[in-house]
Design a protein that fits this description.
Elements lengths: L12 E6 L6 H10 L3 E5 L5 H18 L5 E4 L14 E4 L4 E5 L9 E3 L3 H6 L5 E4 L4 E8 L3 E8 L1 E4 L4 E2 L12 H12 L4 E4 L7 H9 L4 E6 L2 H5 L1 H7 L2 E5 H7 L5 H14 L4 E4 L14 H12 L4 E4 L1 H4 L4 H16 L4 H4 L11 H16 L3 E5 L4 H8 L6 E5 L2 H6 L6 E5 L6 H15 L7 E7 L8 E8 L10
Parallel strand pairs: 1-2, 1-16, 2-3, 3-12, 5-6, 12-13, 13-14, 14-15, 15-16, 17-18, 17-20, 18-19
Antiparallel strand pairs: 4-10, 5-9, 7-8, 7-11, 8-9, 20-21
């Protein structure tokens, strides 16, 4: 007999990346029980066929624990790389001249192929080129259609096919490569819940992905290019969620600028009502160590205090020696931070003014009523998930129990702050709504006899976007007797 997993005792969500250390059904179940609310599948590694049993193992958790599971497929995006070297490796000396050209001949310490026409079209004198995750820095002195002449500002060893970053210009290249289009079609066919688009530079980059998804998944924009910061608000408005991808962002920008940018991205997403994930190197030392550094714990805590919807593990859970311990640590940090009496005040440093709609006004009122009446939970009925997102944007002091007849909606809500989604039949009347709210609150353990809960829904029922009812009810001890 299956047992429903209880709602998490924390509101921030944990997103765990799966990989060689955690792809088995047993490990996925262990991560779920340790605190993972959602799973990231990195399409940069492995073939599509290898992802099918992983996706199935995640879905199997729904039957085992009677709780919707959330899957995010992360597209690789356009990877810029230099060509090959004669002998496989060279050393670039500080102050020397180094040329990137269109010649496929193996390179040496003076030149190498750059197989990306778009860079030659967009580059300008004075722009930087960063090699091997920013370890080497080149400064462009001159260029034409086939050659880019640079001066080596930071030298070092450089080997075949190392990555290249171009932080100072907007490249005229599509956000989706042929591989991405294939991976996106595969992910949608497999029924994943979120598609993450890498290296977004402008809001227009999201249009093709949105068209290809056809509403079958939510679209998350990864903010990892300086150009994206310049049009941040437009990008956030165009997507369903945002990721602060600190890896490439920290390569293309000075590292000291990343923390304030992280806060700006989180604030913008929260203000516009989009779930926001903070990612990369959060517990990096736990790839090899069973415990994190104090600085890493502080970093995770900062994201939680800022009100991020989710915090993400990358290699820690995908390829590290301690994947379950990494998830358990994320879970423990979330519980500890949210137990801080000052946590509620800190997450409201970001002002999230409601839009002039009935649904937003009721979401704001629900937060206030919950605080005034010492309610135990806010329960909302939703088809699309928009009501839950509105409530979560307010960061209420109580959990949000979301009841939806749409399984896809229930799954997508796994990245939303404070939300425990339940896939259940729709209600037919006001009395049915109240009765189901009480029963589901007791069944999930989110409330007990004697507690007050706040219920939000739309009348007429089964009408998306009609949220116009808020109701406070008290639960009595025999609500489950007529449960069916």
């Amino acid at each position: 007999m299956t047992t429903a997993i209880a709602p998490r005792s924390r509101k921030v969500r944990v997103l765990a990346t799966l990989g060689p250390a955690s792809n088995s059904p047993e490990m996925i179940a262990n991560l779920f029980q340790a605190g993972a609310d959602a799973f990231r599948i990195n399409m940069s590694h492995g073939d599509q066929a290898s992802k099918v049993p992983v996706i199935q193992a995640i879905r199997d958790l729904e039957r085992e624990f009677r709780r919707p599971t959330t899957i995010l497929a992360d597209l690789q995006g356009p990877k810029l790389r230099v060509g090959k070297f004669d002998g496989g490796k060279v050393v670039l000396e500080h102050g020397s001249t180094f040329v990137l050209d269109r010649d496929p001949t193996p390179g040496d310490a003076t030149r190498v192929e750059l197989p990306h026409r778009e860079i030659f079209e967009a580059i300008e004198p004075g722009a930087r080129l960063l090699l091997d995750d920013g370890k080497l820095v080149l400064r462009v002195s001159e260029h034409d259609a086939d050659r880019i002449v640079t001066t080596v500002e930071v030298g070092g060893p450089l080997s075949n096919n190392k990555g290249l970053n171009v932080p100072d210009v907007v490249l005229p290249m599509a956000a989706l490569t042929e591989k991405d289009r294939s991976d996106l079609a595969f992910a949608v066919e497999q029924g994943v819940d979120w598609i993450a688009l890498s290296f977004v530079q402008r809001p227009e980059d999201l249009a093709e992905a949105r068209k290809l998804i056809e509403g079958k998944a939510a679209l998350l924009a990864k903010i990892e290019k300086p150009a994206a910061i310049d049009r941040l608000e437009e990008i956030v408005e165009m997507c369903d969620g945002v990721m602060v991808a600190r890896g490439d962002l920290g390569v293309e920008l000075p590292p000291q600028t990343v923390p304030p940018l992280q806060k700006r991205i989180v604030e913008t997403a929260r203000r516009l009502g989009r779930p926001v994930v903070v990612a990369t190197q959060m517990l990096e030392s736990m790839i090899t160590s069973p415990s994190p550094t104090r600085a890493e714990v502080s970093d995770v805590a900062t994201a939680i205090y800022d009100g991020a919807d989710a915090i993400m593990l990358s290699a820690e859970s995908a390829a590290g020696a301690w994947p379950v311990e990494s998830v358990a640590m994320m879970n423990a940090i979330g519980i500890s931070v949210e137990s801080d009496p000052g946590h509620g005040d800190r997450i409201h440093f970001t002002v999230t003014r409601p839009d002039p709609t009935t649904a937003d006004a009721l979401a704001e009122a629900a937060k206030s009523i919950a605080r005034t009446t010492s309610a135990t939970a806010i329960i909302c009925f939703t088809t699309s998930g928009s009501t839950a997102r509105r409530i979560a944007r307010e960061r209420p002091p109580v959990p949000i129990l979301t009841l939806t007849p749409n399984k896809d909606t229930a799954r997508r809500l796994g990245l939303l702050w404070g939300t425990h989604a339940v896939h259940t039949r729709d209600v037919e009347s006001f009395e049915d709504m109240v009765g189901k709210s009480k029963r589901m609150a007791l069944r999930t353990g989110i409330a007990k006899a004697g507690d007050r809960v706040i219920v939000m829904a739309g009348v007429p029922f089964r009408t998306p976007g009609s949220t116009n009812v808020i109701h406070v009810v008290r639960i009595i001890g025999d609500e489950l007797k007529d449960y069916s």
